[in-house]
Amino acid sequence: MKLHWQILISIGLAFITGLLVPKDSQLLGVQLYSLLGFLGSVFLQGLKMLVIPLVISSVICGVAGIGSQKLGRMGWLTAATFIGFTSSAVLVGLLMVNLFSPGTHNGKPASDLLNLLDAEQVASQVAKVAERDGSDIAGVFLRMIPTNIVAAASDDGQMLGVIIFSLLFGYFLLQSAEPGRGAQLSFWSGLNDTMMRMTLFVMKFAPIGVYGLITQTVMNTGLKSLSVMGVFFITVAAGLMLHCFGTLALYLKVFGRVNPLKHYKAMFPAMLTAFSTASSNASLPVNIKCLEENAKVSHKTTSFVLPLGASLNMDGTALYECVAVIFIAQAYGVELSHSQQLMVVLMALLTSFGIAGIPAASLVAISVILGSLGLPIEAIALLMVTDRLLDMMRTAVNVFSDSCCAVVVARVEGEQGVLKD
After folding, report:
1. Ranges of the chain whose pLDDT falls below 50
2. Which of 78, 222, 231, 414 is the most buried (most CB within 10 A)?
3. Residue 326 and residue 103 in contact, taking contact as beta carbons nearer than 8 Å
4. Angle at the Cα of 276 (from 274 to 282), degrees rounded to 5?
5. Are 275 and 400 in contact (CB under 8 A)?
6. pLDDT tens-place string over residues 107-141
7. CA-CA-CA-CA dihedral for 126, 131, 134, 135, to nearest 10
8. Computed from CA positions of residues 178, 195, 319, 287, in that sequence, does the dihedral angle turn out positive or negative?
């Protein structure tokens, strides 16, 4: 049985157990509520264990992979388009989450309904986030340059610095001479492959961890949390729709100088495949076919842009990360300053580039950003309730964005037959 079905079944069982079993029930002399918390904590600790080596190796390998292509004009144009598209997606997510405020209920933080923490612990988390406040924009950028990379790796609040260091390391690694360069590339590639396998192993326990965490929530709140999660779902879905049918259409019209409606029609099979499989890589062959046969983009462009986009251009993922993090902050009653919201935007952008190709990428990326803000990652268990359907939706947006990037690059490079009757 595929993992997402296991998680969906565990969520269903969690609601049934939480509604039918009293909170003070015992199993073999052990309080069931505490046992469920233990199961959830083990899973979350496993995710935390992976974050540092996974982020560093993934970002370095990603940068090295691009650089080794000897990009040239098309490469720089593709990179600029990826950054523009993803930045726009994150800003749309920021707009929607501030507009809908899904982490509040009747004007108050929804921490009680979501069973996050008791009032005293919530106050402690708010104080911790306040300590991380950069007070001005310069503070955010200063945290990008860690004075001690080892110390930064051990401090959740310095993850942005770790990512920047990894980006620079990957870039300058390509400038080094042989045999050192080849040995380094082999090491980081091997580490990245190992960390992906470890992530797959930890994610096998996701159904058990999610069951424990969600059952605890339902035992405390009943079905009240569903109303809050419903607003969160609508916020993310509305943001994805606005970006897909608004922002990307504008890019196609202004920079690609093509009719967006023709492109939606041309790419419909690829978007449907992405939605049903929730996999950018699985959709890649269909995406290439639709672009070349329906949109008339050259093979030279599609063979370069789309494979890179499947790993690096994750508009929907970046938008989701931004909304999810600020949703959790709202639920704790934390009012993020402008500098903190800027940090969320930057980290959503960077993590979507750096670790989007790994299993459970959103969970890992969200945990990185939460740690940087001083918020606990336990709240991400709630996201699993709506994650499968939202994953399908954001993958469709990711794939469509890749195709838009290919069209823009093709048109700027002078291809004349793109989306012409």
Report:
1. 119, 134-137, 359
2. 78
3. yes
4. 45
5. no
6. 787 777 776 655 455 555 555 555 555 444 455 56
7. 80
8. positive
- Give me the residue label for tokens 């982020």: 55
Residue 224 corresponds to which tokens in the numbers above?
């009240």
Is the Cβ–Cβ distance between 299 and 292 less than 8 Å?
Answer: yes
Q: State how far the Cα of 373 lies from the Cα of 322, in Å rounded to an integer.
A: 13
Please report which helix (H) or strand (E) contains residue 167, including its range: helix 159-173
Q: What one-character-per-residue DSSP string does 338-374 give?
A: HHHHHHHHHHHHHHHHHSTTSTTHHHHHHHHHHHHHT
State the maximum Cα–Cα separation within the chain, in Å, rounded to a whole number: 74
* Interacting residues of 95 by C-beta distance below 8 A, sequence separation 6+: 239
Domains of the chain, each with CATH number or no CATH: 3-412 (1.10.3860)
CA distance linking residue 220 with residue 112, whole number of Å? 9
Contact 379, 270 (CB under 8 A): no
Q: Phi/psi at 30 (nearest 5 deg)?
A: -105, 135
Radius of gyration from C-alpha coordinates of the chain: 22
Task: Give the span between the Cα atoms of 5 and 276, in whole angstroms.
Answer: 13
pTM: 0.74
Instruction: Check residue 401 and give its pLDDT.
Output: 94
HSE-CB at 261 with a 13 A cutoff on CA atoms is 1
- Measure the CA–CA gap between 153 and 161, rounded to whole angstroms: 9
Residue for token pair 């590639």? 189
| CA nearest to 353, candidates 1, 11, 53, 82 | 82
Residue 108 carries which DSSP code?
E
